[in-house]
Amino acid sequence: MNRIIKKSALALAAIGLFASASAQADSLVLEQDINSLSFNVDVSGTTHDVVAGAFSVNNLTSGSSFLAFCFELLQGVNTGTLTPPGLDFTAGSAASADTQTLFNQSFSGLNLNSAVELAGFQIALWETLDNNDLYSGNYSNWTGASSSSEETDALDTAWIFLEKLTANDPATGSYNLTTWSNATSQDLIQASTPGTNVPEPASLTLGALGLAGLAAARRRKA
Questions:
Q1: In b/e form, how buried is each residue of 42-75, taking b as 16+ CB within 10 angstroms?
Q2: What is the Cα–Cα distance from 128 to 174, expressed in whole angstroms?
Q3: I need a surface site. Which of 11, 112, 171, 199 has the fewest CB within 10 A?
Q4: Rounded to two decimals, what is the model's pTM?
Q5: C-alpha 57: how far from its chain's center?
């Protein structure tokens, strides 16, 4: 009996080691913010100042680069992610149905050199984590931080993306979504086409992308 128990314990330990290995984190480095817009938003009654755009991410573990968006509104970017060796992020797939639909409907048509479209998509993405409405719910009363025309246009763009979601518009693409999580830095979400690790549109030079980075002083917890 004791021998059987010992064998079972060893088997469970091996399973645990295998699970730990499969969940091994990748070291990610984010590039500096070069193309983003600033907004104010009420989060559960408290006004926060946030930056919306996209990240260019270098995965030092795999040697790949990809485009990503913020998946955690109030968590700041840890400065450790801005220079090698970066920070360890764990990959997952915890995207909601609305987030998946947003990517499938609108991501393929994004102009990734447009700060307005990147910010609008990022705001719509945050809203898929709430109630898909810019003026109600836990994330509400979105306004431009400086009332610039670009910020106004970005909010209008976010509405367009959310209206497509509400109207159940047809998909224009199909994406695998990967979430990247770190306990001390803002979580990210990456889209890739099935069977590849390359985000679309794939013709963009990632180094020229706008980022939502350097937001440690902007997106911070209350």
A1: bbeeeebebbbbbbbbbbeeeeebbbbbbbbbbb
A2: 17
A3: 11
A4: 0.81
A5: 11
State in Å, rounded, how far the first CA of the chain is from the last one.
55
Amino acid at 164: K
- Which is nearest to 108 in space by CA: 96, 127, 95, 121? 121
In angstroms, the CA 218 to CA 76 distance is 7
What is the rounded CA–CA span in Å between residue 69 and residue 125? Answer: 8
Q: Are 219 and 50 in contact (CB under 8 A)?
A: yes
Separation CA 185–CA 150 (nearest Å): 28
**Which pLDDT belongs to residue 209?**
38
